[in-house]
Design goal:
Blueprint: E1 3-7, E2 12-16, E3 20-21, H1 26-39, E4 44-47, E5 53-54, H2 56-71, E6 76-79, H3 83-91, E7 99-101, H4 104-120
Parallel strand pairs: 2-4, 3-5, 4-6, 6-7
Antiparallel strand pairs: 1-2
Length: 121
Amino acid sequence: MKYEIDKEEKYYLLKPKVEKIDSTLSPTLKADFITFEVEGAKNMIVNLENVKYIDSSGLSALLVGNRIFSEKKGSFVICNLNEHVMKLMKIAKLDKVLSLLPSVQESIDSIFLDEIEKNLE
């Protein structure tokens, strides 16, 4: 799958360069989430700005990413969802499970706030 990856100290920012995340791409996406976690990524932001369509296997890949980073006490944030993808998330009730935010900056802010809270515990 083609994407941009920005590796920062506190988070990785993944931006797919495709319009569809479906069964042909989701296995690669799942494997990449595992690779990033093994590399040391603590938190992941997935910018879906370019994604116009996602099917059930694509949603499954996002849930796998959420599980991988949640198990490591990290954050997994999805941002810039278009109307169709957001509607699908709500129908599947994934808006209750996944952290969905409107912008990259809000996602970064959310991760930094989570990091501060974890350091206070």
